[in-house]
């Protein structure tokens, strides 16, 4: 949703940003897929 991972980590009270990243790794992976698809679409226009 465009919110910085550090802000999410702080809001959730995680001691380290890596904790947040580990928990939400699947969300981050899907975001990477969306980004890759967007780049591919722009390159093929």
Summarize the model shown:
The protein has 45 residues and is mainly alpha-helical. 76% of the residues lie in helices and 0% in strands. It has one domain.
Q: What's the rounded overall pLDDT mean?
A: 86
* Number of discrete domains: 1
What percent strand? under 5%
Biggest sheet overview? none
Number of strands: 0
| Contiguous runs where pLDDT drops below 50 for at least 5 residues | none
Q: In sequence order, what are the helices and strands, one letter per element?
A: HHH
* Proportion of helical residues: over 70%
Q: How much is the radius of gyration in Å?
A: 13 Å
- Count the DSSP helices: 3
Assign an overall shape. Answer: elongated
Task: Please identify the structural class as seen in this structure.
Answer: mainly alpha
């Amino acid at each position: 949703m465009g919110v910085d991972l550090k802000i999410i980590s702080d809001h959730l009270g995680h001691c380290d940003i890596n904790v947040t990243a580990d928990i939400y790794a699947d969300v981050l992976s899907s975001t990477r897929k969306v980004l890759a698809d967007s780049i591919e679409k722009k390159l093929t226009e």
